């Protein structure tokens, strides 16, 4: 099969490698595609801790496709089932996953690109946010996750204030149900606007979905006394500082919404598939760019630069 191998900073090569074989309780998936996750960017840049070359297909963890082989002991999944999978080497034509780590996709979704893992992340972030009808929710960073969270929060009856850098992102937030949008430009101006919009109470729930120091600082400023600050951004470029005085004074809860329990992650994917099948989330609004496997570096560059209407890219083998 053909697989992408990261051979150095910002440099994937496409290689012919042996077809992986499923072991006991595993399935092999003929991949239809794999989403590109922003968490791939730091390894792609080539930090000191990276080892090159990577295993074939490595970094790809947002897979979907059709099961084409099953290992011994697999009973709940059959050859021909279309699935979303939690696997780890899906920048390739085939990948192997544990049979318990795949979610069957209904026939009604057969025409959709469906990287289940990131949709599942959004569902789990929403669950951890504990958003209720009547609350005011600020969401900082309207990319793929932020846009889904706008839809889920507004559908739950919350008033959503979307804050993001690009006008295209703010337009998407409006489409997804945001009541208010604010450009993410001036720290104190944003605080004043939210203060006015909330009658000086600020927001019962704030979701930081950027993964940078400034939005984290801003998110704390927008969180009401006794509220909840939810960290959904992926902070992977070094330590962070927090204003502990403010956190103490406001008395809000702080939730790290990154799940690591595989069963919880899998349940999020199941919830996402149900939400998509029910029409609550439309992947076609969110998956804006498709790249063939041999243009994977270009896909990662677009994920970093976010040109135009970019929300999320997928790699198709």
UniProtKB/TrEMBL annotation:
**UniProt keyword annotations, A-Z:** Metal-binding, Oxidoreductase, Zinc
Q: Which SMART domains match?
A: PKS_ER (SM00829)
Q: Does the keyword Iron-sulfur apply?
A: no
Q: Which family does it belong to?
A: Belongs to the zinc-containing alcohol dehydrogenase family.
- Asked whether the keyword Cytoplasm is assigned, the reply is no
Cofactor list: Zn(2+)
Q: Which CDD domains does the UniProt record give?
A: Zn_ADH9
Listed Pfam families: ADH_N (PF08240), ADH_zinc_N (PF00107)
Q: What is this protein called?
A: Zinc-binding dehydrogenase
Which branch of life, at top level?
Answer: Bacteria
An MF annotation (GO) of this entry: zinc ion binding
> What organism is listed for this UniProt entry?
Sphingomonas piscis
Q: Which residues form the Enoyl reductase (ER) domain?
A: 8-315
